[in-house]
Amino acid sequence: MGAKVVADRFDLDARRRFRARLRACAEALDRLLREKRFDRPRDLIGLEMELNLADSRGAPRMVNEPLLARMSTRDFQTELGKFTIELNVAPRALAGRAFDDLAEELRIAIGYADRMAAEFDAQIVMIGLLPTITEEQVGPSSFSSADRYALLNDQILAARGERIVLDLAGAETVSHTFDSIAPESACTSVQFHLQVTPERFAATWNAAQAAAAAQAAVGANAPFVLGRELWQESRPPFFLQATDARPPEMAAQGVRPRTWFGERWITSVRCLFEENLRYFPALLPLCADEDPLAVLDAGGVPALAELALHNGTVYRWNRPVYAVSGGIPHLRVENRLLSAGPTVTDTVANAAFFYGLVRALADEPEPVWTRLPFAAAERNFHEACRHGLRAELSWPGTTGAGRTRQSAARLVREHLLPLAAAGLDAFGVAAADRDRYLSVIEGRCRRGVTGASWQTRTYHQAVDAGADRATALRALVARYAELARSDLPVHEWPLA
Q1: Residues 197 and 328: beta-carbon distance below 8 Å
Q2: Which pTM was predicted?
Q3: DSSP 2
Q4: pLDDT confidence of 2, banded at 50, 70, 90?
């Protein structure tokens, strides 16, 4: 969705033309795969992080555009809401001291953004959902001014034909209707990219799907939605409803939502792009000038612009990415399920756990997806989002017989962390990097503390001391932002 969108309406033939171009893109992708035109194995990684802008009282600060205009870097860009910005980190090889280097780059970039934000009476908060956001602060007036945001909003509402409904239940409940997709802007995530060859793509994506529950359990950092306590990681159900283009009748019939875990293990990257064409109508049927098949016939490499644009409006938690760099096409798995923060160290630890675990699972001679039904992986994911480290997860037995159920904390400490360490070794990551960042994950599991559990404990401590809801949430954000600047991992944060 980073491309500039300038159209403001579509005629009745727009989807038909776009669908035809999508089929041409799919055919071009098949040819590129058959002809083995893709980049060689390189183990490249990348990262994007969405960041909140909050004032001194913890409320969202709608200043992203003047802030970005003031900053002397192009590493940051707008996001859907005026109170968010996105940081894009350059790709790098996953080897040696890659994680320490990544952490240093993130500290410099976020520190700079925080200093610049202070000129606009704002501060950077790395968190999945800002607890102080209210219903009134996520309306059409909170959209960033880029054309693509308004157009996407109009198309989702037109497809849905009625207001967006948020109806979520956890420790408390949220029930509210909105006349725009603006609530989605409250969801701020970190996205991990891993470049893989076509031959490795299916195994890597399947591994990422299997690992999603463990990721959500150890990285949970979004327990509050519009000031109400819900799940440990509330972003997935909230994001699903905030972007749901289905009216209730379509949902009741089993029509797939655009925010999607998926429904099967795959055998090729083709499976995912074919599902996009088969199940999801175009929201932004904008055709580029390029004819992908003509470009191929001339010996060139097509951008597959329509395939990329359509793929950007299907919000898989592990999304396929096709891109061209230096005239050579490549494929990436984009892991999108984790909340931002709480600190740079925590974020890099989450990255190390993801990359290492996915590599190890993809390399196993008897892969986990041959022993774990896809439906069980999806149930694991939802359980982890709801309960965090206390979730009971199903996992194939280490002896090869049946499946066991155990707490996420125990599963990660006893089984998945050793796998992640082996995976990082296979990438060639330095032992010091491996041990430093995986120890953060181990510490969370041992102490039973994540960003989400720290937030809820801090909030209830304030309420028990006599604070009302609004005061407790403001104090929570202020303390969170203060401790995040220390870069001390969240499992070592004090409560009082």
Answers
A1: no
A2: 0.96
A3: -
A4: very low
